[in-house]
Amino acid sequence: MSQNQSPKPVYRAYALHNFRKLPQVADRLDERTLHEIEVVGHVLPFKVNNYVADELIDWDHIPDDPIYRLTFPHRDMLSEAHFALMERTLKETADKVERRKVANQIRLELNPHPAGQMSHNVPELNGIKLTGMQHKYRETVLFFPQQGQTCHAYCSFCFRWPQFVGMDELKFAMREAELLVAYLKAHPEVTDLLITGGDPMVMKAHRLRACLEPLLEADLPHLRNIRIGSKALAYWPYRFLTDDDADEVLRLFERVVQSGKHLAFMAHFNHPRELQPEAVRRAIARIRNTGAEIRTQSPLLRHINDDAGAWAAMWREQVKLGCVPYYMFVVRDTGAHDYFAVPLAEAHQIYRDAYRQVSGLARTVRGPSMSAHPGKVCVLGTTRVAGEKLFVLTFIQARNPEWVGRPFFARYDEQATWLDELEPAFGHPAFFFEAELMAGQSLN
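Request: output the structure for the sequence above.
Response:
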């Protein structure tokens, strides 16, 4: 190695079994904090890596640093009752089976699969449930490759946290791409495929190729767009720079684009700091050079990005780097929801205050959007009708496409954080879509 050549970055993961070995943890966290991390980490998934620890977390401002909150468990992510139960169990027994039993008991009380993911979204082919897929909206199918059901680091808010806690009955995963192709052939209404996880970009290039090549080789003229959902740009940008198969991955992206399919890299950025390191900027440029488009999205999160200035800064920087701001989500009602939730009224105000700070190029972003059971419900704002203050809502996507774009109203509730906490306006007993939803007449 020449004197001017930097050593190749090496990925190192830290989880519950070894996080005390992380130098910053050993230097900065007291024993009480370490204990609380271990209690919560026995229930909710926990994994961080050396890039996040060295490049993103500001250790001078913990525990309030947003990236620290994004990756490290915190006591208040569990209720007092759940924390006390797990703490007592860890104290009373070293039996891993008993500890897991109690952890699973708590997990099942945290709404592990919201919005009908298991009950309503899993499609069938010839009478066989395809448990590694979801088909909620007419045009879009989600595919969960088995080798992509982990991440370079775990987000503490993740709504797919059951993928990572070892409860197989709560996990989405599918090994064979052949069933995916067969399903797509049987459903010509599908134009978009989202490959998701976990994070598909943890897979080696040959694994990713095994997912993508059958799609390109099959006769699927109706499949126009392939999306890859990933946090890798924020958590390990070296996946596209110096990993052994980084160039092979980018060549695969090029092949997708050259085949005539649109490749959309759905990048998860939760805070503007994730866009600052030079590595992520170079990785973004390399992906864009393949012809892929990068769209960006994040939920609105208490303790992390519940600030209009942070969102405006993030959107401006994303546009500067050639990315397309896409979604501001409402954090889903699962896991540590109570810790991260922002009331819908406040969420819309943050969105509005951020939106008006940016130019038209960043106003591609939609939100705040709830990925709820009936569909993606966007809070358009508030209004007054006959003296009553109301939320104005609409579907961006829906189980029944006829619902999309149709405004509807809910009574204003300053504390509501999710759709099921809202009441229909004007004394109506139900929202317009609920009877059909309950009757099961819509898709899936």
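The chain has two domains: 13-107, 124-371.
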